[in-house]
Each structure stands twice: as structure tokens, then as C-alpha cells.
Amino acid sequence: MNPISNIWKHPKTSAAGLLIAVVTIAGVLSQQGVTLGTAGAGSVVTLVSALASALLGLLARDPSGEPSPTGSTARLGAWMLIALLLPLPWLQGCTGTTVAQNIVNWTPALQSAVQAVDSTAALLAPADAPVFASATTGFDAASDLLVTQAKAYLANPSATTLAQLQTQVVTLQQQVNAALLQAGRIMDAASQQHALAAIQAVSTIVSAILALVQSVSSQADVARMAAESTIKLAAVGPYLNQSLAARLVADHYGEPVPLARMQVAQAERGEALAGF
Q: What are the residue boundaries of the structural domains of the chain, listed by start?
């Protein structure tokens, strides 16, 4: 098919594809630290991405368009909706205060998940409870400190408070990853299921906070944080339940589970690309 004539015959679809490509490329550039200069309080990359998203919104609301085979319009609308709804990290990171508030909003869920971990040992087989307790023994202190530092960063989003938050989120992330590996060695199937589910709830929240911290951190700081993360996401991936993570994120943001599943996958890709 001639690409020029295809663009002419299907302008709406072609425009949507181009705008989605712009948003995607802007995300990759931002993750690599490429800004292309400043634009107001943000960068040229974030401005272009925001404009492309806004145009996608206008295009999605436009009832007109070329005749198309059955289902193609629905598919186009779905892709535009996905592009519009995904909470892109490079846009969230435009203001430190917004990200700081988002981090603090996660802290009640973090504290609740840690409390659930504390009570999970009673559900395990007698031989497995001590192993689980040992694996999760540092969660309470580490999570309390992360909550404290998240609130300190919200009150004063300075380089000093951000550095403390960066250190603490990586510390808790590493404790959680180590606990997942230890829980994976539990032989009793029921005990292992209870243990992994409890730890993963904490893991999902910590990963969400880590992604938010990344969005307001410099490329050098992200590299340093990744270097401090000795237990990588790839090592604990086999013990993670994507459906469980998506449900937790969907409940937190009050959104559909399929959208949350995409957000979880996007955050994991970002962490993996950064070296976590």
C-alpha cells in the first residue's frame, strides 16, 4: 500500500498514530535525560509531550472522520484513550510538589501493607513462620522512616530531603527484594502463597514510590540509586504476581484494572531500564 495515499485516505488514524509516536518518543528521551532545552518551568520534551497528549484528546472527541472497516474506529479510540490515561512519569515529574504529594498519598497504604505482613506469620506453617519473620523483620522501621522522609520532602522539596528520600526508598526496596527471595524458598505451598502475597503488597507500593522518586531525580542520582540496588528486579520477577499488583494500583487510583496493569508494566520497564 502506498504510504502517502494511505495518509491521505485515513488522516485521522494517521494523525493519531503520529501523536502517539511523539508521546512515546518524548518519554524515551525524558528517561534518558534529554530535555532539548527549557520551556517555562519544564523542558521542551515535556511541553511537546503535553501538547501531543492534548491534541490526542481533541482528536478522540472529534466525531467526524473517514469511513473505516468495522472495529477500526474502536481500536483507534482505545489506543488514544490509553495514551491519554497513562500517568506518564516524565509529565508527573514536572513539579516536585505534585510528586511529593503523590508519594505521601501512598504512605497510608504502605503502613497498612506492612501491618498485614506483621500478622501474616500466624497464617504460615509452624516451620515457616520463623523464616518469614526473619525475612521481614526490618520492614516496620524502614517503612516508618520512608513515611517520615516522604512527608519531610513534601514540606521542603529540597535537594537534601530528596537525597534522604532516595536513599530510604532504595533501602526498603532492597529489604523487600531480599524478603521475596527468602519467601520463595518456603517449601509449603500454602505458606509460600501467603508469604509472597503479603510481601508483594509492600513491594508494589515501594515500586510505585520508587518510580515517583525517579521522576524528580537527576540522571546521575538515578544511576547512583540503581548501583545501590544489588538485588535487581529480574531476580525477584518470578515471585511477583502482576494481577495482584495491578489490583492494588487500581484500588489506589480508582481506575480500571487493565489500565493499572499497563501502568505497572510501564513502571517495571522504567526501573529495569534504569538498572534497578
A: 3-85, 95-274
pLDDT recorded at residue 89: 41
Residue type, 110: L
pTM: 0.69
Cβ(233)–Cβ(204) below 8 Å: no
Q: CB neighbours of 99 closer than 8 A, spacing ≥ 6?
A: 92, 93, 212, 213, 215, 216
206: which 3 cell numbers? Answer: 515501594
Average confidence (pLDDT) per 10 residues, the chain, 276 residues: 56 61 58 54 54 54 48 48 44 64 93 95 94 94 95 93 96 97 94 95 95 92 95 93 91 86 84 90
Q: 208, 249 in Cβ contact below 8 A?
A: yes
DSSP class per residue in 223-248: HHHHHH--S-HHHHGGG--HHHHHHH
Contact predicate 76/64, CB 8 Å? no
For 32, the enclosing helix (H) or strand (E) is none
* Residue with the three cell numbers 545501590: 228
- What is the structure's pLDDT at 88? 43
C-alpha grid cell, residue 54: 492534548
Instruction: Report which DSSP code applies to 123.
Output: G
Tell me which residue has cell 524502614: 142
Element (H, E) at 87: none
User: How far is the C-alpha of 158 from the C-alpha of 147, rounded, in Å?
Assistant: 17
